[in-house]
Specification:
The protein is an all-beta fold. It contains no helices and eleven strands. The radius of gyration is 14 Å and the shape is globular. The chain starts with a strand and ends with a strand.
């Protein structure tokens, strides 16, 4: 079965950085788009960043210029480098395997907590 696991979150000060890691396993074929989403307490889950298999990226306005998404197709892994973190970035960050073999899947990881606080 497909499994998606995120790690790399933690407690950081404002203006700090974290690198989040998401590894997918049990994949038969090729992953197309992969994305990062986040959910803050009391809020809806929101889009953060997406990367296509070929490397094209999209970012939410709130993180543009601060976060960078990347991937390693050989490892079925996606990364999110988060820089210049703000308290409003505090959330559980989730990885999503959006499509496999051009079929929508929507496999989610368990989430990794990012807390930005003094």
């Amino acid at each position: 079965q497909v499994q998606v696991v995120e790690f790399g979150g933690g407690l950081v000060q404002p203006r700090g950085s974290l690198r989040l890691n998401c590894a997918a396993s049990g994949i038969i074929g090729s992953i197309n788009d992969m994305g990062w989403y986040r959910q803050a307490p009391g809020k809806q889950r929101e889009f953060v960043a997406l990367i296509a298999r070929g490397g094209d990226t999209n970012y939410a306005d709130a993180v543009k210029g601060r976060f960078t998404i990347s991937r390693d197709n050989a490892k079925n892994t996606v990364y999110l480098q988060t820089n210049s973190l703000k308290p409003e970035d505090t959330a559980v960050y989730y990885c999503n395997v959006i499509a496999i073999n051009r079929v929508r899947t929507g496999y989610w990881g368990q989430g990794t907590q990012v807390t930005v606080s003094t």
